[in-house]
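Re: weekly structure request thread

Next one in the queue (474 aa):
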Amino acid sequence: MSETREKLEEMGFRILDAVRTELLLSMRFMAPALNSLGFKMDLRTSSVGTDAAYIRFNPGFLLQEYVERPRRMNRTYVHMLLHCLFRHMFSSRDREDPELWDLCCDIAAESVVDSMSYDVIARPHSTFREEWYEKLEGELKILTAEKIYAWFLSRDRDYSVEEALRRAFTVDDHSFWQRMEDDEEPQKRPPQAPPGAPPDRDGGDGQQETQESRNLKPVQPKEDEWKKNAEQIEADLEIMGKEKSEEHGSLSRILRFESRKRTDYREFLQRFSILREEAGVDLDSFDYGFYYYGMELYGNMPLIEENEFREVRKVDSLVIAIDTSASCQKVLVQQFLNETADLLSGIGSFFKKTEIHLIECDDQVQNDRVITDLRDLQQYANEFEVKGGFGTDFRPVFNYIEDLRAAGELENLKGLMYFTDGFGVYPHKPTDYETAFVFWRDEELDDTGVPDWAMKLFLTPEGMETVEKREGTN
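Done, posted below.
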């Protein structure tokens, strides 16, 4: 490595060390993230960016920013850390429009930085930014890259507006994200720095970086490590309490939202099906070898015949309770029921004897419709009307279910799904069947009243995705 390059690289390391130290002194809760990025000089960029393992920098850009606008350099560092904590680069490969995804990631990260009140990253907010934050929050309530991306795709695209947004929100170089997508062979990971130690400067091998090594693809992304960092920072912010909430702005709220476990709604509905033998030929367990051997040996007498019963997984009995209070919108209930009917059809329909109770309720049970055909569920969805006018008490539904079971109905009840807005009186006694309170648009909901023994499911507009809070959260 030439002497000039060594000096430029050392200068860049010293600048980033200084920025990192200043951030650590002011924002100690960010220590897990600050200790997870090494530094690399990379002349393929004209500015600075990260691949989730290193901050890759152009030394000329770094020196100019640090001398002329040191606070902006601090903000850029935090901006890149947020990309890593929200794991934006790891999901970029799933996006059809990478340029739009880059923009949405920058808007999401900058909205968090702008919401913080630390002097070390403070800067006046432009009117243009404020107007767009207000516009997006009015539509989405919480600004994540995924939600902003879906919002833009759902509307007529105005590319001149998007270009203006890029000029206002672009901070770092995302080109390293694309190289991560093309990385097929795992690379050696840098060793983990001890707590409080400065990031590794040369990749951890103690050797100077050669021209050949600089052309190699980045190290394997450390997605699991960043997920753990996000969970640790979320927990630390909760310990800090509300008195510090103004300083860290929307970070805690978004980390809490991102940490929820997301599973496919179809996978969740499998919990309400049971495994049982049913009359029918089970070709999967049929051994053709013994069959043909017997036919050859004895003429027309096989040594084995098809099984007359097979194990199948289907829905036996299920209760769907619908909160008919005015706050539950008709269109949301219809979408929930239609999607549920479609997915139950894919599970394998019903056994010959099946009960699905559709219970309409508010502060009491208003109606109970029993169906045995999924077409009836879809018809019910299309005819559903919100009654409204009363408060919500969840307990009468649970009492009603126990009365049915005492009368000999719902003998094999697998579960209850209670679609509601979340406002009501919850039961305290646990059930011996799966119970899930189903909500719409989780970022708007105060769900602290849901008992610990019940599941909380949140259906989002993006494909009826279920979201379960990870263990340890309320």
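The first helix runs from residue 3 to 26. The first strand starts at residue 38 and ends at 41.
Next request, please.
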